[in-house]
């Protein structure tokens, strides 16, 4: 057992995160112990810490964009050894038996995937604690190999923001000749631009702000469309095979549907909840268009994404912070005041009092 591990935890929805000492389990036969070097800061960390989704268990150690190095392995581990650079994403277990798991879609496990934090370990019933900490112990089946050449800090957000946008791009078979649009330029949106461009698509950013054009082009956008301009939207009617909507709050998706081509799909990856205003189904029915959703990706697909990013020199644009500054990062994230993802340098935990 790794005793007295230091981390930062939320103790209630109202309290700021603070130092928390806890134990990590002893290694099971197939476990990998990882010293955490970097952990990305995701919008869902904030939502969970503040109990926005109503299922928080406290104390809660957030963090599911984890990059580190292996320090110890169980006797049955064959895929990793001490010193390997590895990642841990949003899941640390699944049933492994259902139809979804059999297809490599552990994120859709019919018996509920075990999340990296705020979850329950199916073997011993303990609470899972995430990456805002010194170490983590995970089954080798849910550990990702970080390819050589990837910047370790920039790789951390790939474990959530990267795979969340990669999965619908791959599911919709995006490649040369595809026309892809991205709604929103934040942590998810900037990764969607980079990945779609690297896959060979023509890439468009929908934005309400003309001031984002230069950055969008730097990240891979070929075109920028001002979504508040009806004439600009009308000029793009029937254009896109896929729209990746990364906006994390309730918004009107109806203006984007006419820009889909026949058989095109708008995929929501940032917002969970009812749409307001309601979705008008008429253009869907009349032109065989779809509005869908997508949740992260399976382990094999996540490894595929990491390998692709290494080959194409893709990493997230990050701002490194100390763990002591996590509350300020949360507040800045709410104001969209980051380009484009905060990553915690976990060496700062050594200074935690």
Written description of the protein model:
With 353 residues, the chain is of the alpha/beta class. It has 2 domains: 2-160 and 298-308 and 315-351, Alpha-Beta Complex (Quinone Oxidoreductase, Chain A, domain 1), CATH 3.90.180.10; 161-293, NAD(P)-binding Rossmann-like Domain (Rossmann fold), CATH 3.40.50. The protein contains 10 helices and 17 strands. Strands 3, 4, 5, 8, 9, 16 and 17 form a 7-stranded mixed sheet that branches. The chain has a 6-stranded parallel sheet with strand order 12-11-10-13-14-15, covered by helices on one side. A two-stranded antiparallel ribbon has the order 1-2. Strand 14, helix 8 and strand 15 form a beta-alpha-beta unit. Helix 4 (161-171) crosses helix 5. The longest helix is centred in the C-terminal third of the chain and has 14 residues, at 299-312.
In short:
The protein has helices at residues 43-49, 99-102, 152-155, 161-171, 187-198, 213-219, 230-234, 282-287, 299-312, 326-334; strands at residues 2-9, 18-24, 31-40, 66-73, 85-88, 91-93, 114-115, 135-139, 144-145, 179-183, 202-207, 223-226, 240-245, 260-268, 290-293, 318-321, 341-345. The chain is α/β, with parallel strands linked by helices.
Q: What brief labels describe this structure?
A:
353 residues; alpha/beta; Rossmann fold; 10 helices
């Amino acid at each position: 057992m790794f005793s007295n591990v230091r981390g930062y935890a939320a103790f209630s929805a109202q309290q700021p995160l603070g130092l928390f000492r806890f134990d990590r389990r002893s290694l099971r036969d197939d476990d990998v112990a990882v010293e955490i070097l970097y952990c990305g800061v995701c919008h869902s960390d904030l939502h969970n810490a503040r109990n926005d989704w109503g299922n928080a268990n406290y104390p809660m150690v957030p963090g599911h964009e984890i990059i580190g190095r292996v320090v110890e392995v169980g006797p049955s581990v064959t895929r990793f050894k001490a010193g390997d650079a590895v990642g841990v994403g949003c899941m640390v277990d699944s049933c492994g038996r259902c139809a979804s798991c059999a297809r490599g879609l552990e994120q859709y496990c019919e018996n509920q995937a075990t999340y990296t934090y705020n979850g329950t370990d199916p073997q011993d019933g303990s609470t899972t604690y995430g990456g805002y900490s010194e170490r983590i112990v995970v089954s080798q089946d849910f550990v990702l190999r970080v390819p050589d050449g990837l910047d370790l800090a920039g790789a951390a957000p790939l474990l959530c923001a990267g795979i969340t946008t990669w999965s619908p791009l791959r599911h919709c078979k995006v490649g040369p000749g595809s026309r892809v649009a991205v709604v929103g330029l934040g942590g998810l949106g900037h990764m969607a631009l980079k990945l779609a461009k690297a896959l060979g698509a023509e890439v468009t950013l929908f934005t309400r702000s003309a001031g984002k054009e230069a950055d969008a082009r730097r990240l891979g956008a070929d075109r920028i469309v001002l979504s508040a301009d009806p004439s600009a939207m009308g000029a793009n009617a029937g254009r896109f095979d896929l729209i990746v909507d990364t906006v994390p709050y309730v918004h009107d998706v109806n203006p984007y549907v006419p820009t889909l081509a026949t058989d095109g799909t708008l995929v929501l990856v940032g917002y969970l909840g009812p749409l307001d205003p309601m979705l008008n189904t008429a253009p869907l029915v009349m032109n065989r268009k779809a509005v869908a959703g997508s949740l992260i990706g399976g382990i094999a697909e996540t490894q595929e994404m990491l390998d692709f990013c290494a080959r194409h020199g893709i990493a997230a644009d990050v701002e490194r912070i100390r763990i002591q500054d996590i509350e300020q990062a949360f507040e800045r994230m709410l104001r969209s005041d980051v380009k484009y993802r905060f990553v915690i340098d976990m060496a700062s935990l050594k200074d935690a009092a």
